Amino acid sequence: MNSQAHTPAASRKFKILVARAIFPEALAQLEESYEVQSNQSDKILTAEELKKALSEVDGALVAGSERIDAAALSDAKNLKVVANISVGYNNLDVPAITAAGVMATNTPDVLTDTTADFGFALLMATARRMTESEHWVRSGKWDQWSIVNNPLGMDLHHSTIGIIGMGRIGQGIAKRALGFGMKVVYHNRSHLSDADEKSCGATYVSKEELLRTADHVVLVLPYTAQNHHTIGAPELALMKTTATLINIARGGIVDDGALAQALQGGRIFAAGLDVFEGEPQVHPELLKCKNIVLAPHIASATEKTRRAMVDLAVENLRAALDGKRPPSLINTELLTTEN
Ligand code: DGY
């Protein structure tokens, strides 16, 4: 761990940064143990503000909005831990954090079911044109029941779902799909164990085969440089014209401009997006599409789960500051090489 120029901390209260608004009770508990610098205004810190705040603390609770890299850490002489309140950690430059001797943690498991529920909800809303239908009702233009002249959707039951990224959340979606009698195919960096494939009823296929055969494509893979634009114009061209595409992974996994063109040109049937390139900005051409369901990055957003995410991040932070191994340490090599 960061041993250079550390201020001896045993004799003083640790200082921590809480970079985004959290639940008041969680903040109050932290204030009992630490000297807390908190940003309850929830206004995202600028890179300069973040760097300055990190230079003054021993630990930090951050979220996807905080980019933690070598520049952010350059003055962080006492920092021991960066606890991300998020399972995805593409905001963390892990090699740079490790090089600075700082522990990095995330919040896996506690959000798996909530996020899988939301992925399935978004898929259902998209395939059955729910927001488009709601807009129609609200507009007052719906004037009669009709056999054909109303939003006709695509079935989920007994269709094929293709899941790209078969970690915990992908597997959660697969298990939900089984309840709808869906055939489940998946593509992932690695094959699941036989037992996991069996419990998900899932068959591994190439990305091309998945795109050609799935009625519904769901993206749940982490964002990395290699995964940038996993779905762009060439991939959309492989999909069925009747297919839906759901992105609950990260902005940048889909080329949003190419997706808007595909939706406008009827290349695919519909899309459901919880994440966007450059969010909270949304590609203006996507906003013009009717055949899309849009959500503001809320897949893990239930009160119970957000509290559990904060609690796990706090547990990680406390463990690190107590000199213990945090339960969801990302850069495990930091402890391995030292112990
Ligand atoms: C996660 O936990 O990764 C969610 O997407 C929130 O950032």
TrEMBL record:
The D-isomer specific 2-hydroxyacid dehydrogenase NAD-binding domain, residue ranges: 120-299
InterPro entries registered for this protein in UniProt: D-isomer_2-hydroxyacid_DH, D-isomer_2_OHA_DH_cat_dom, D-isomer_DH_CS1, D-isomer_DH_NAD-bd, NAD(P)-bd_dom_sf
Keyword tRNA processing attached: no
Keyword annotations from UniProtKB, A to Z: NAD, Oxidoreductase
Pfam families on file: 2-Hacid_dh, 2-Hacid_dh_C
Superkingdom assignment: Bacteria
Cleaved signal peptide residues: none
GO MF annotations, alphabetized: glyoxylate reductase (NADPH) activity; hydroxypyruvate reductase [NAD(P)H] activity; NAD binding
Domain spans labelled D-isomer specific 2-hydroxyacid dehydrogenase catalytic: 16-331
Record's GO cellular component terms: cytosol
UniProt family annotation: Belongs to the D-isomer specific 2-hydroxyacid dehydrogenase family.
Protein name: D-glycerate dehydrogenase
Organism: Polynucleobacter arcticus
